Amino acid sequence: MEKAMSPKGPRTYEEARQTFAQFVTAMFPVGSDAKDAISRMTNAGFRTEGATALNKAELVWSRNAGPCLERYFVVVGQSADGKIADIAGQLYPACL
């Protein structure tokens, strides 16, 4: 019997959105150092887009993928002690 091939990564943008959101929360869990997380993301190519609210930072990374533009956003909420209070990642594709 032939073994079924499984994809190495997400095959649809809906799967990619879920995978990215899960990846962000796994890499930068609530309670970890917010400044370190932001530094690591900017070192990986994310740009800071400013604050969306008090103690929140928004970061974005964009790339062209064939006929699509992919924009990856991360919003980091920071507590008074400099820890991540909340974090969310979102992928926004725009295809021709």
Descriptors for this entry?
4-stranded antiparallel β-sheet; single chain; disordered N terminus; alpha+beta; 96 residues
List the helices and strands and how they pair.
Layout: H1 13-27, H2 34-43, E1 47-48, E2 56-65, E3 68-78, E4 84-95
Antiparallel strand pairs: 1-2, 2-3, 3-4
Give a structural overview:
This protein is α+β, with helices and mostly antiparallel strands and 96 residues long. The radius of gyration is 16 Å and the shape is globular. The termini are far apart. It contains 2 helices and 4 strands. The model is unreliable at 1-6 (pLDDT under 50). The chain has a 4-stranded antiparallel β-sheet with strand order 1-2-3-4.
Could you say which structural class the secondary elements and strand pairing correspond to? alpha+beta
How much is the average pLDDT? 89
Helix content: 25-40%
Q: How big is the Rg?
A: 16 Å
Question: Helical element count?
Answer: 2
Major beta sheet, strand line-up: 1-2-3-4
- From the spread of the alpha carbons, the general shape counts as globular
Tell me about the largest β-sheet: 4 strands, antiparallel
Q: What fraction strand?
A: 35-45%
